[in-house]
Amino acid sequence: MSELTSIHRQFPSHIQDPTNFYRGLSVSDRVLVDNLLIFQRTSRRSLRQNLLENRMHHRYVLTYVIEKPGKVFLDGAAVSLEEGEALLVAPYQYHDYYEMDEERLRWLFITFEVVQGGSFLSELRNRPLRPDDVARSLWVELAGLWGSDVQSDERRSEILPTLERLLMRLKSYGKIALPRPQSEREDSGEMGDEWTSRVEELIVRSVYENWSLEEVARRANISLRYLRSRFEKVMGVAPSEFRANYQLHAAMLLMRDSRLSLSQVAERSGFGSLPVFSRFVKRRVGLAPSQLRKKLLRGEFKFEVPTR
Q1: Transmembrane residues, as ranges (predicted)?
Q2: Out of 87-101, 179-193, 206-220, which region has the weakest mean confidence (pLDDT)?
Q3: Residue 111's pLDDT is what?
Q4: Domains within the chain, CATH numbers bracketed
Q5: pLDDT tens across 180-195, in order?
Q6: What is the pLDDT of residues 59-81, one digit of tens each?
Q7: Which residues of 272-298 are buried (b: 16+ CB within 10 A; e: fewer)?
Q8: Which of 143, 47, 39, 33 is nearest to 91 (CA)?
């Protein structure tokens, strides 16, 4: 049997005529992507870069675990990823990586922006994804296309629709149960992933529980001075700056939902009142919340980590 004959035998034996030859299939808000990048990380050090802008930014991040499981700290909860599983991180969503069993690993990343259909992706967020064989073959195809002459117009015209198809496939076949929020772990005074994860988790909780940094330190069983010095040494940023950046990005994520009022955004991102929220946003980005929201919805705002 020739290869062509083998392929032809895969066609269905019967295809029903459409009821209307002038009105076909259409999707009004299907996802369209742009500005795509693909790269991989092969060591724990390269995966956990101590740069705040790498953990909170304006792009979607789609991760696939090829080798070595680990955990992603995502907005206050730890999401475990096994080999063959994936995770979608939304724009301005805080994320960091922990508990890699070995120094050597292989995780594949696709980062991109969405031109249309961002609401389509909301169901894929905050949960591990388990691609089926078709979705995994699309991952392989994307990596292969990127590894070829990606600068050619032909390759670019292939790779973006392939990612769009992968996202649609994941929505239909890749979702698994939402992870339960991780309960408070045993306190550990050790420097390293577990200590950092524990303190980050407490700082994120402090935004919504209205805790001071003193309360964060107390719950971590350490002094405030130790918290500040150790956290800045490990993360490269003071705890107060980390919390402010997290709170800002949490608000940005909510602002992209045009159904929420600014008062609701302020409340859900841990601010006691709209005036307090407005002053905070103005101080951090130099814009009123309404101006920031307009720029976010138009895709015009690019965040820069404050240097002060």
Answers
A1: none
A2: 179-193
A3: 93
A4: 32-173 (2.60.120.280), 184-226 (no CATH), 237-308 (1.10.10.60)
A5: 444 333 333 444 556 7
A6: 889 999 999 898 887 766 778 89
A7: eebeebbebbeebbeeebeebbeebee
A8: 33
Closest CA to 159 of 34, 29, 26: 34
DSSP output for 19-71: S-TT-----TT--EEEEEEEEEEEEHHHHS---HHHHS-SSEEEEEEEES-EE
Q: Are 109 and 66 in contact (CB under 8 A)?
A: no
pTM: 0.66
Q: Which residue type does 264 have? A: Q
pLDDT at 57 (0 to 100): 67
Determine which helix (DSSP H) or strand (DSSP E) holds 200, and give its type and residue range. Answer: helix 193-209
**Band of pLDDT at residue 56, cut at 50, 70 and 90:** low
Question: In 95-152, where does DSSP find H-type helix?
Answer: 133-147
C-alpha dist (Å) from residue 234 to 22, 87, 186, 228, 292:
62, 25, 20, 10, 31
The sheet that has 32-43: what strands, in order across it? Answer: 32-43, 104-116, 60-67, 86-89
